[in-house]
Amino acid sequence: MNNLKTKIMNKKLLLFVICLMTISFANAQITSIAIVGDGAGGWPTGAVGEVDAHQMTTVDGGLHWTINNLVLTNGAVKFRGNNSWALPYNWGGSTFLSGTGIVDGAAMTSVAGIYNVSSYNISFNKTTLAYSFAFQVISIFGDATPGAWTTDTDMTTVDGNNYTLSNVALVPGALKFRGDHSWTLPYNWGGTVLPSGTAVVDANGFSIPTAGNYNINFNVTTAAYTITSSLATKGFNTSTFSVYPNPAQNSWNFSSSNENIESIQIVDVLGKTIRSSFSKSNFVTVDASGLNSGIYFAKIATASETSTLKLIKD
Known about the structure:
mainly beta; Immunoglobulin-like; 6-stranded antiparallel β-sheet
């Protein structure tokens, strides 16, 4: 009887050791990690030899994995290793934008934001399973900017698509937009036209003509931009614009305390003009009915200056 018990225990111990060795061997054999899911362009089809489209990279032997500037839409996403669903190398999660991966867990629900798509820098730790999704960093750079050609001035964003800076001090010189503090293409942009237009990848910097404070908007998807003087800055025309109600349901009312408003263009977040007014008055009403709820911008021009106001449609 004792011999039988001993044999059974030895078999169990052997199976346990084999399992440990198998796990260790599998852990040593992971060669890739990728982002997959309909939030990242679609799920793998299962075709033989298929390689996941959004491969992450590692510089420390496979512990930390990253991918930058990956555009996500609203949908489901997972991490998976070796272009396969073989366990334990597929991970879901319960939270977005950060959390701890769950082996074979439910997919995370990616959030694209109000602009339909957002660009993320993503990291994943294979050992702790900690992950994070962070919006791409967009900054202004150049001798016209506060950091000159030495330090980036980061813009702010709430959706990973439209980036802004308010009342930033600029001096005469060049200004460029760039991503993640790097010159990596296609994430550096310049141009020649002020105060607004579409930036050009790897072009020369915008030439800022006059020292002063500026409001800057940049859409990383369409490259649409505005670079306009802050209205209250000394040295610029100080006519004051106002808009009400904002948020609005049916219409926005714009007023100027000094000059007549020559034109108003209402643009969406992709830079497309959807309403225009050329009333040439110091009080202008623009119809907002029929527009989808969300954020818009009003490009206002007088005879001497231009400005951009942020609008909200309920």
